[in-house]
Fold:
Amino acid sequence: MNEDYESLRLRMVERQIRARGVRDERVLEAMRKVPRHVFVPPDLVDEAYEDHPLSIGKGQTISQPYMVALMTEALELEGNEKVLEVGTGSGYQTAILAELAREVYSIERIPELAREAERRLEDLGYTNVHIKVGNGTLGWPEEAPFDAIMVTAGAPKVPGPLKAQLADGGRLVIPVGSEFHQILYRVKRQKDTFSEEALTSCVFVPLVGEEGW
Structure:
């Protein structure tokens, strides 16, 4: 492992993530372990561990490290969950989830990004990740229900199909609002009752699809 990158990761976790209140030790350890610089374009490698999102092409971004950690912590993963991710992007968030859950099913609407992410994750040795190209707003009904669902794009509302695919006791984390500003919500399901908790304000690329923009 490149010691330079490792020290940058450790600093990122302490200064950007733990210092802002993320306390789940499993999440912090995953953020220390996954090599974020592998998931950014070559010309942005020097910025991989800085405190902001980065462009990955195709109008998409890799989220700010703090936001990745915050959303992951909000899923309350213990290790045996089946997780759905909507918006694979570069695959960085997918890798974090793969460190913390039993199985990760990730949907990406842009084929080139899906292929690149799949290659990166395979190269890093992840065997519990399944990626498909498709309309993430409709979820992955063939594999439902999911113990946890993460949406990494801003939606005008919580998509009905995703709520329907959430297991009893499951958690769904999603940014909801306008195309330019959202509130991050955690939705919890208890049988047929859904509760919503606002976590923080945020800005994500728009969720595109039948149940999105």
Residues 3-202 form a domain with the Rossmann fold fold (CATH 3.40.50.150). The CA atoms of residues 57 and 104 lie 23 Å apart. The beta strands are 54-57, 60-62, 82-86, 103-108, 129-133, 146-151, 166-177, 182-190, 193-202.
